[in-house]
Amino acid sequence: MEKHYIIDFDSTFIQTEALDELAALSLSGADNQEQVTEQIKAITASGMAGDITFDQSLSQRLALLGANKKQVQKLTVFLQKKISPSIKQNKDFFKAQAENIFIISGGFKEIIWPIVKPFGLKAENIFANDFVYDSSDQVIGADKNNFLAQDKGKIKQLAELRLPGKIYVLGDGYTDYEMKGLGVAHVFVAFVENIRRKKVVAMADRVAENFNQFINYTYE
Questions:
Q1: How many beta carbons lie within 10 A of that of residue 54, not counting itself?
Q2: pLDDT-wise least confident of 59-63, 84-88, 116-120, 181-185
Q3: CB-based contacts of 171: which residues, under 8 Å, 6+ apart?
Q4: If you average pLDDT over residues 180-199, what whole number do you get?
Q5: Among residues 43, 55, 201, 208, which one has the fewest Cβ atoms lying within 10 Å of its Cβ?
Q6: pLDDT for 31-74, tens place per residue?
Q7: Residue 191 to residue 183: CA distance in whole angstroms
Q8: In the chain, where are the structural domains located?
Q9: What's the angle, vertex CA 113, arms to CA 126 and CA 195, rounded to 5?
């Protein structure tokens, strides 16, 4: 049977949450840096646990960021060093399965693509948000027409792809589980190499301590 792999980006492909790291960059030196950074992290955690909807989480975090295009570009360089170790060790798997691997993320393409491109993944298989900038290159929001900026966005995006065969989802958050829970994927594997969210783990079909375990599960 044909297999497709849906892989999350933040805290899965990479070890951290990109918007949290962007906040650290954009707020560096500000008097309220620590306070706002903690607010953003708390909103991230609430969204990942499913306590607030993803569109609420995204809009609230972007409103606090105050980031610009140069900082976004600087972040992509920083994140090159934050790829999850077991992901990095399996570059051959990504290259061999590039046709069947899709990144579906609530993050941003502008950040994700430079990180995943060296793994041989296809640009057309990367689904994520798009930053909206003003005339001064300040981030002022996300394109709300994009599925990934909306509540249940991952479900909508995966459903539209109409992928054949068996669909495996790997991720650390509630929105990753929802693709299985709401019937558009067959198996949800909770990825806990970077963070273990109890609520998410409780709903998973399997739990992967690393990417090698995920690969093994798909061959059972």
A1: 22
A2: 59-63
A3: 6, 7, 8, 12, 177, 188, 190, 191
A4: 97
A5: 201
A6: 888 898 899 889 988 988 889 988 888 889 888 888 999 999 99
A7: 20
A8: 3-16+82-218
A9: 80
Mean pLDDT throughout 140-151?
Answer: 92
| Exposed e or buried b per residue across 78-94, where buried means at least 16 C-beta atoms within 10 angstroms of its C-beta | ebeeebbebbeebeebb
Q: What's 80's DSSP letter?
A: G
CA–CA dist 109, 97 (Å, integer): 20
Q: In the Cβ-directed half-sphere of 30, how many Cα atoms lie within 13 Å?
A: 16
Angle 100-132-81 (CA atoms, 0-180°, nearest 5)?
55
Structure tokens at 188: 């949800």
The tokens of 32 are what? 């309220």
CATH for the stretch 3-16+82-218: 3.40.50.1000
> What is the rounded CA–CA span in Å between residue 15 and residue 163?
28
pLDDT score of 220: 83
What does the buried/exposed string (b/e) look like for 132-152 if buried means 16 or more CB atoms within 10 Å of the residue's CB? eeeeeebbebbeeebbbbbeb
Both structure tokens of 148: 């990934």
CA 62 to chain centre: 16
In the block, which residue shows the tokens 């909807």?
53
Give the separation between CA 84 and CA 100, rounded to whole angstroms.
20
Let me know how long the chain is.
220
